[in-house]
């Protein structure tokens, strides 16, 4: 990309703060030098003597000439030496004494330099305070473009190759979005190729996606590939505490863009300024709305902005003003999704180029075990693996570091220093074993990835399940299986320890089951009594955030909704109870294995339930656990259905 000259940006110049400090430091040193020169100018050379000695020298005829001053008396002896002394006030006889002894004397007024010195010394503190205040004001205004009226200047920065060049080769896993934007780059490079068929360049493209999926990275890749000026600004940079600043900055930004057309303007987090109008708290003339109105006019108003392409990014398209989303302003809405398994493998390949890898590292295996991860999550995973390898004093990052980093990212860091009693460990082991046994015997449940009773994050233990493939929708049988698995921990506590000894560790399980059952009844139409109707509307954003509110329904319908939710959860509790009572020997077997090994993988759990022992040759533990007396076959993996990743963990009680 060709380098552009920006009057507000000087990449090769010094830091503005350093430049200002150097200027004011030089002024201060100059003032000190002037003070020193004036101080030296006010002093006369010569030996300082007492006034009485001066009178004696005059009386003895040793003085040749004298200059009388109000603050100092200077003179020359007949032997050529100079002297100085401080006069005594009201000594009127000194002049007659000098006349009697033939001493030539003259009077001297206060020197003009002393007056200047006096004024300078008294005004120096005021000048310093004034200079500091002016410097602070300049720094406040510099963010708005500098100058006394610079608050309305645009904060858009011209991105150059010195800022770190990114190309489309650095963007992986989001091929469709990349192709959409690559077409804009090709239009900028060769506009005649499209215009000869009557096509017009898109005026704007809106990048929509969850956080961490690569929206800003795509924009940087466009800057690296386009070969045209690229301005970047954040949506929050438009709005200030001063009225009218946002609209002024929008105008100034487009003026800069027109001077550099054809060019690209990238607005990150545009929802900060582009929210729907009319939602102010009683103030229709809101500053943010003025800024949005000016942005709408500049993007597609009476004055055409030829050659200016606006690219914006947001993860909340639902809150944007409809006028901003219409064709002619944002002609394209490019969805940047969470990558699938192939995309995750490519993203891992991009990030793994920066770390030394051991021969056993397989990106495909890591990609299979990270469903739902965004590009930022995968970059964090690779970084955590590299940090673990460095902590272990290894020269290469091996597969074990990636597995440990994946567990840390998914389940949280281990808290091995947490002190738990034997009874708490036993209850946690049976709780997690209950989740695992129900998951194994529910055909629609996801396979178990790992079970542990080591506290991680806020959980005392955890059973992590991962789908066998990427899934984009839930099935009814899978939802019922997830309800049963969530109840498995509480049911295991009831069977082993009794109803009076159940713990608060199942709080998160109960919350998950209640929310899932409510969605099945009120949003997904999975209740036979209520039918395929929606009884709750959602104000969710793109990320599934926000509050859910119930629509207007009769009291009888609300009671029926509550009864159906309770029925689903109690039915899952009954299924989990039936499974665990039927396979109680497997429950004891797995709980004892968790107490002994603390952490078991999915394959080890499957081997344990099939053979009755765990084959871990590198473990310093004792002999294998004996096989159960009774049990049934383990469901095959082929009977399971894919789905989103899930984790079951029992939370630590408050204050534990």
Automatic annotation (TrEMBL):
Its main location: membrane. The chain crosses the membrane at residues 21-41, 115-137. Coiled coil: none annotated. The gene is ftsH. This is ATP-dependent zinc metalloprotease FtsH. Homohexamer. Zn(2+) binds at residues 431, 435, 509. It is found in: Cell membrane; Membrane. The lineage of its organism: Bacteria, Pseudomonadati, Pseudomonadota, Alphaproteobacteria, Sphingomonadales. It is an enzyme of class 3 (hydrolase). It is a multi-pass membrane protein. GO terms for biological process: protein catabolic process; proteolysis. One of its GO terms (cellular component) is plasma membrane. Its EC number is 3.4.24.-. Binds 1 zinc ion per subunit. Pfam families: AAA, AAA_lid_3, FtsH_ext, Peptidase_M41. The keyword Transmembrane applies. One of its GO terms (molecular function) is ATP-dependent peptidase activity. ATP binds at residues 209-216. Residues 610-656 are annotated as: Disordered. Its cofactor is Zn(2+). Keywords: ATP-binding, Cell membrane, Hydrolase, Membrane, Metal-binding, Metalloprotease, Nucleotide-binding, Protease, Transmembrane, Transmembrane helix, Zinc. InterPro entries: AAA+_ATPase, AAA_lid_3, ATPase_AAA_core, ATPase_AAA_CS, FtsH, P-loop_NTPase, Pept_M41_FtsH_extracell, Peptidase_M41. Belongs to the AAA ATPase family. In the C-terminal section; belongs to the peptidase M41 family. Residues 610-619 have a biased composition (Basic and acidic residues). Acts as a processive, ATP-dependent zinc metallopeptidase for both cytoplasmic and membrane proteins. Plays a role in the quality control of integral membrane proteins. It comes from the Bacteria. Residues 201-340 form the AAA+ ATPase domain.
